Amino acid sequence: MNKTIPYLFQIKGIGSEINGYITVAQSPEISFDVKRVYWTYYTPEDIVRGHHAHKSLQQVIFAINGSIVFNLENRPGEKYRFALDHPSKGLYIPPLYWRTIELSRNAVLLCLASEKYDENDYIRDYDVFKKEK
Ligand code: TYD
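Above: inputs. Below: predicted complex with thymidine-5'-diphosphate.
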């Protein structure tokens, strides 16, 4: 299902403070077939990543380490701010959300994506994004 509103969700960790935890990402929390996985790391604190939207890509993001803030905006101008501050928290991002991403220096951002990499799926100009029909 291709949803239209971004949302944060939590996947309960399996385990304990004594033995450590395992968290599993699968259906139904992941509602699309995952065709690509990528991760980013070692982002300097003063760098803001993102600055783009996707035409059709769906994503689920985890902060496997550190903390990450996602600022999202859709074309009508609705804005969302999500904090990923624990490895058990996931963020679903539907198509057509402009995003800027702030990462702590130790952050590892893991993305599960519904499509393989396609630069043609990107909108990298904010004004074009706001106007695109
Ligand atoms: P980009 O998606 O713009 O990263 P961010 O939103 O984190 O700033 O991608 C950065 C660069 O990496 C860009 O040149 C495209 C390239 N890239 C790939 O080649 N394959 C991929 O799957 C991804 C996500 C990016």
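The first strand starts at residue 7 and ends at 10.
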